């Protein structure tokens, strides 16, 4: 019989594979942006939020913060680099107003991350205390990552179109949330369980919306000006 630690490692590896797919799933979206030479209609919110989320989880998984979390570090380190590339593509193919908002958001995230690292290492001197502080922040920003598509979901409901909500991103969001929730339950880790449980729920809602509005989506309809299609966000 497989012991809990072995099962957790196996689930964590599966989680890495699914998370790898999650991080790669927006590639078709960015191919479309590259071909059209414009990011109009697409929103950078989820990708900007994920940059900070991945940075926080990499820090959380460091041995001097939360030992035995190598699988958390590896996948989030990969995700951090890839999300920066995605945000960079948005920056290149966006108008100046959106570029300015993206830069401002990244600057705020950088300042915040530096502050968290400094406080954690200089003020807290045990892995237990460090895990608690960084873990709580990870929950907050992981929830931010999973709820950032709310602006897109709102647009889907208003326009009855899923043209700008990539299916594979929604699917892998759901699967990713489920597998990491299982990982957290095997060796109870509330800091991993809470956000990923919510992530599974968020992904499920997106899949339901996709199934509901797929038939009413006009895939070949000409794009409206940015001012008409954008609801909120950078």
UniProtKB/TrEMBL annotation:
Record-level Gene Ontology MF annotations: sugar transmembrane transporter activity
A Pfam family per the record: MtN3_slv
Superkingdom as given in the UniProt entry: Eukaryota
Keywords: Membrane, Repeat, Sugar transport, Transmembrane, Transmembrane helix, Transport
Family annotation (InterPro entries): SWEET, SWEET_rpt
Subcellular compartments: Endomembrane system
Transmembrane segments: 12-34, 71-93, 102-125, 131-152, 164-186, 192-214
Keyword presence, Transferase: no
Gene Ontology annotations for the cellular component aspect, listed alphabetically: endomembrane system; membrane
Membrane topology: Multi-pass membrane protein
GO biological process: carbohydrate transport; protein homooligomerization
Function as written in the Swiss-Prot or TrEMBL entry: Mediates both low-affinity uptake and efflux of sugar across the membrane.
PANTHER family: BIDIRECTIONAL SUGAR TRANSPORTER SWEET5, RAG1-ACTIVATING PROTEIN 1
Family: Belongs to the SWEET sugar transporter family.
The protein, known as: Bidirectional sugar transporter SWEET
